[in-house]
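Running this now, will post back.
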Amino acid sequence: MTSQSGDRCNHFFSLTNNTEPNTGGFEAAPGFHRQFNEWARNRPNRKGQQGSNTSGLCVGQYTHIRPLEDSNVLSQIKHISCRAGSAVIWDYRIPHGNSYRNDSEVTREVIYASFLPDVTINRVYVKNQLTNYRERKIPTDQWAVESRRATSGTNLAKNTRVCSKEEKNGYLFNDIGKKLMGMENW
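Update: finished.
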């Protein structure tokens, strides 16, 4: 990757089989990257709750898919079948998420990762992530906020915790882990 904008490539390694729809698996709009630029150029703004216009695209590489305005995108979302040991790779131009339902008895298990080009914006991001890890700060991205909001008052919220100070320095990274966490240079 040679992008200076910090475009990243996301992926996961599946630890379990997930071959059927509605089993908590990964869903995406295959091939949407070929239409992304045109879609982004032509995506209408929508009225905010106070009557103000809100941009069709969000800041950064996250763009919320809106059920009404983006029904054509949602119609392209499909279950991505994968077996244990598979790697699934996509970039920010592919609308994606986890299945809304899991009708099976099996928990989907994956390891998520991202490839970040070595550019200034990503170096800052890695440094901030490492600082947050060391200080045991709760993640501040949209998923953490939504998760706390969605689970407020539930058993899940009651069983969720941040590591205690005694656990703070309990994990020692090996050489590759130190490089992946940005603690050492490659």
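The CA atoms of residues 79 and 151 lie 25 Å apart. More later if anyone needs it.
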